[in-house]
Amino acid sequence: MNPRIHVRANGRPFDLEVGTTLAAFIRSRSLDPRFVVVELNGEPLERSTYDDVVLAGGDRLEVVRAVAGG
Amino acid sequence: MGEGQRRRERLARARLYVVTGARTEQGDLGSFLDVILSAGVDLIQLREKDAEAGDLIRWARVFREAADRHGALFFVNDRPDVALAVGADGLHLGQNDMPVEFARELVGPDVLIGLSTHDEMQLRAAPPDADYVCVGPVFATPTKPGRAATGVELVRTAAATEARPWFAIGGLGQRTLADVVAAGARRAVVVRAVTEAPDPAAAVRELLAALPPAEG
Fold first, then answer.
1. Contact flag A19-B142 (C-beta cutoff 8 Å)
2. What is the number of domains present in chain A?
3. CA torsion A26→A28→A34→A35, rounded to 10°?
4. How far apart are CA B68 and CA A2, in angstroms?
5. Which residues contact B143 (CB under 8 A, 6 or more apart)?
6. Which residues, in sequence order, are CB contacts of B92 under 8 Å at separation 6+?
7. A70 within some domain
8. What domain range includes position A26?
9. Is B178–A19 a contact, with Cβ atoms under 8 angstroms apart?
10. Which residues of chain B lie closer than 8 angstroms to A42, CB-CB?
11. Residues in chain B with pLDDT < 50?
12. Touching check for B171 and chain A: CB below 8 Å?
């Protein structure tokens, strides 16, 4: 069996394959990585890094949809 | 004890391997190497794929002296001639570099040889002349664009089958290393996690803390 990792996103637990990138996770939530803002363990991330960031067991994510206007 | 035996015993105890260029932009090669070796890095590798021999040899001397100051091993990427010229401890080869058997004839029995492998077939085919193998890239990495990540499956295969020292490589960092260790890795190669860290010594200590203790 493949090892799995557990992360929390917006307070909810998720069980993912080891090696899941942030971009893949965002898409798996039916979101478009171009239109979300993400904090990983309290740190905001540059959108250009989403494809390179591999999630790790215990990571805490805040994923917020970016909304135009105000 | 022969030089080859001394190097192989040092390799067997190794846990953390850092691959870096010559840091010509930062201009801090010697001090950077001293910082990471003081923090506990076991192996350093000079990788500058497009550099000419003269530059490589100048940089390699800095690596050689730094490794000697800290009792670490120094590997040259790709170039047996440069490895011999500077008295490197070892030579690291990719799948499309000079074949391991030819390199062994050139460098002799006392210079260690490492080999990159990217799938199970390459891992199983690694010649006995390779003193260590690397498996990966485990995760997606901009250091090797276009090469598909192997995932942790190859790490599990290596853990189950590989008798010689082997290193997980590819996109490994402080956050993700524990997951690779859980899959069976005991040794890791890192690039950006140390070379681009704001505090390279702290990065080295965190990575070492995530790895199991040395064997033997």
1. no
2. 1
3. -80
4. 41
5. B137, B170, B191, B192
6. B45, B47, B75, B76, B77, B78, B113, B114, B115, B116, B134
7. no
8. 4-65
9. no
10. none
11. none
12. yes
How many helices (H) and strands (E) chain A has is answered by 1, 5
| Least confident piece of the model among A1-5, A15-19, B40-44, B103-107 | A1-5
Closest Cα partner for B169 from B146, B183, B145, B185?
A: B185
From B132's Cα to the closest Cα of chain A, the distance in A is: 24
B3-210: CATH topology is TIM Barrel (3.20.20)
| Nearest CB neighbour to A51, from listed B138, B140, B173 | B140
| Closest CA in chain A for residue B184 | A3
Token representation of residue A70: 């105000």
Quote the ipTM score: 0.71
Residues B171-184 have pLDDT tens digits of 999 999 999 999 99
Tell whether A2 lies on the interface with B, counting CB pairs under 8 A: yes
Contact between B137 and B152 under an 8 Å Cβ cutoff? The reply is no
The total of other beta-carbon atoms located within 10 Å of residue A28's CB is 11
Q: How far is CA B203 from the centre of its chain?
A: 17
Inter-chain touch B140–A21, beta carbons under 8 Å: yes
SS3 B25: coil
CATH of the domain at A8: 3.10.20.30
Are the CB atoms for B113 and B127 separated by under 8 Å? no
Tell me whether A39 touches chain B (CB under 8 Å): no
- pLDDT tens, B28-59? 999 999 999 999 999 999 999 999 999 999 99
